[in-house]
Write a structure and sequence with these properties.
The protein is of the alpha+beta class. Helix content is 13%, strand content 31%. Belongs to the LOR family.
Length: 187
C-alpha cells in the first residue's frame, strides 16, 4: 500500500528546530516543512468526531468517535478512510495539572525518568505548545480559530502548526486525547 500524500505545504517559512525526523506513528507522516492543520469537531450522534484539514481545506485525517463503546474508542483515519491509529481510554495513576503542563510518555519508555514529549498551555483556551522531551525544543502549537459559523454554532475549531520533521498524525492524536481529557474534566 502506497503512503498517503502529505498535506499541502503552506507558503515557505524559515525552517529551524528539528533536523532529524521524529516519527511516532510512521516516518512518512514527518513532512520536511511546516504543516498547518485545521481541527474541527463535528457534532452528531457520535461524540468525538473530528475532521482535520490542510491549508487547502483537503481532509488529511478524520477521527471517528464512539457511538456506543465499552472502551470509549477513537479511530484516526486517513483521507481515504484507512485506519491510522486506534485509541482506547486508559486510566492513569498519575494526576497532573491539566491547564499548565502535561508530560507524555510513549509505551517504549518504561523507566519514565524523562518524558518523551511535553505540552504546556491551556487546552481550555486552545493555546498549547508541544515540546520534544523535557526540553524547550518546540515541535507543534495549537491555537483557537474563530469563524462566524463556529461562534454561532458554538463548535470547536482550532489550528495546529506542526513543525518540520515532526509526525503530524501523532500530534493530531495528542490533540484528540487532550480534547477528551478536557471534555471528561468538564462533565
Amino acid at each position: 500500500m502506497a503512503a498517503p500524500p502529505l498535506p499541502a505545504p503552506p507558503p515557505p517559512e524559515p525552517s529551524g528546530g528539528i533536523v532529524e525526523p521524529v516519527p511516532v506513528v510512521a516516518p512518512h507522516f514527518c513532512a520536511p516543512y511546516v504543516v498547518q492543520l485545521s481541527v474541527k469537531e463535528k457534532y452528531g450522534l457520535r461524540q468525538g468526531d473530528f475532521t482535520i484539514t490542510d491549508t487547502n481545506g483537503a481532509v488529511v485525517i478524520r477521527v471517528e468517535g464512539a457511538f456506543i463503546s465499552i472502551h470509549n474508542r477513537r479511530l484516526l483515519l486517513d483521507a481515504n478512510g484507512n485506519p491510522l491509529l486506534c485509541m482506547r481510554e486508559k486510566k492513569s495513576s498519575i494526576i497532573q495539572p491539566f491547564e499548565t503542563e502535561m508530560y507524555i510518555y510513549l509505551a517504549s519508555n518504561t523507566s519514565h525518568e524523562v518524558c518523551d514529549f511535553k505540552m504546556k498551555g491551556s487546552f481550555k483556551e486552545r493555546a498549547c505548545s508541544f515540546y520534544l522531551g523535557n526540553t524547550n525544543t518546540l515541535i507543534a502549537q495549537m491555537h483557537r480559530q474563530h469563524s462566524a459559523m463556529s461562534t454561532l454554532l458554538g463548535t470547536d475549531h482550532y489550528g495546529l502548526t506542526v513543525f518540520p520533521n515532526v509526525d503530524y498524525v501523532f500530534i493530531s492524536a495528542l490533540v484528540v486525547i487532550l480534547q477528551e481529557l478536557h471534555t471528561d474534566k468538564n462533565d
